[in-house]
Amino acid sequence: MARLFKNGKIARAGSAELVAVDVLVDDEGIIESIGPDMAAPADVEVTDCEGCLLVPGMFDLHVHGREPGDEHKETLASCAAAALHGGVTGLVLMPDTSPPVDSGNLVKSLQDLVSEIGSIPMLPAGCLTKGRKGQRLAGFLGMANRGVSMLTDSGSSVPCPDLLRRCMEYARDFDLLVTTFCDTATLTKAGALNEGKVSYRLGLPGIPAMSQEIAIDRNIRVAQHTGARLHLQQISTANGVKSVFCAKEAGTRVTCEVSPHHLLLTENDVIDYNTHFKLAPPLRLESDREALVAGLIDGTIDVIASNHSPHTEFEKSADFGSAPFGVTGLETTVLAIYDGLIKPGIFGWDLLIERYSKRPREIIGLEPVVIEEGAKAEFFVFDPAAETEMKREYFKTKSPVTPFLGKTLSGAIRETVVAGL
Ligand SMILES: [Zn+2]
Q: What is the CA(293)–ligand 1 centre distance, in A?
């Protein structure tokens, strides 16, 4: 059935201006017309959007779908449902499943699972090395032939710089994006949180900032030498932002991402040994958080990516040292960024759309989503005057483990509209 969204304000990248208009979506999900005070044609469902925003669907470059192999944490169906619930209408699946996605055949079987669900685009990334073991190259040609555009060992670094060099040389030749989780295992050891005052106070082993910073610098250097396109995941320190800034100044083909958690929280939030704050990389200092926000605003940091990492509540109920790293993010990112950064006036919706909708699609080679006549409907209705209680019942993910659990965030996503769904 065709739908008329009355009096919503359209948010867009590149413009802070918000003007209330009506948006008519035809019964095939195409935006037929946009304009003021439209009369509702017959047989049209009218939705009153007074006071609400219509926001282009977000795109998350960093999602752990867990299927196949860890369906007790998440399935592709629950992942898609969580994404839509959080205003995310497309995403990239990390290849750290069981088995890891390291060949064209495994990409094909994952693509088949995704199309069976028939929901939003969920694009498989492939591994850089066989089995994510960091020993020999994965099947680049087979994966490229299946349409993969991002390769990553997701959660593991490629320890040997010579192998990383060969990965980047092949990736460059196939025009594939190399994406790296930046960590130096010999420095991280069994660390559980940022190395510093809080780790000393809690008596837990720390992960030094330089564990990530050294890996960032090394990976940038290899990208400079090979000419490959490099995307750095989950930048967490001020020094990391500086390194990316300098690399971009030098013309290196590098992009990077930050998580909503690192933009909003610090090591001081790791109170009471709450494992919902146990992240990889760990939450850092307030000065790091400020540098990440500044880097996001000035464009040194290209995108926000949630690093949606489902683990069951049982797994996360272990003690802080033994609990797995990571929390979910698909259903909390838009709300948490609105509550913590947009509502207080740190930046506007235009920047969030640029960094969590437009730029991530660009990096993976997709067209941006826009709310314009003739375009497919792909937006969510956001009510800034409402509040959302982050109760367990709110979540569609199988693993409602997040630092925001139990909190009330400003704003609410009323619904996500996608043509054909
Ligand atoms: Zn991850």
A: 20
What are the tens digits of pLDDT across the range 354-376? Answer: 999 999 999 999 999 999 999 99
> How remote is the C-alpha of 355 from its chain's centroid?
10
146-167 pLDDT, tens digit per residue, is 999 999 999 999 999 999 999 9
Q: How far is the CA of 34 from the centre of ligand 1 (A)?
A: 39
pLDDT in tens, 209-267: 999 999 999 999 999 999 999 999 999 999 999 999 999 999 999 999 999 999 999 99
Interatomic CA distance for residues 121 and 111, integer angstroms: 10
Q: Are 316 and 364 in contact (CB under 8 A)?
A: no
Judged by DSSP in three states, 171 sits in helix
Q: How far is the CA of 129 from the centre of ligand 1 (A)?
A: 16
Cα–Cα distance for residue pair 26/33, rounded to 1 Å: 9
Domains of the chain by start residue, with CATH: 2-54+373-418 (2.30.40.10), 58-363 (3.20.20.140)
| Residue 369 alpha carbon to ligand 1 centre in Å | 24
**Residue 36 DSSP symbol:** S
Instruction: State the pTM of this model.
Output: 0.98
List C-alpha distances in Å: 380 to 5, 11, 26, 323.
11, 10, 16, 34
> 94: CA distance to ligand 1 center in Å?
7
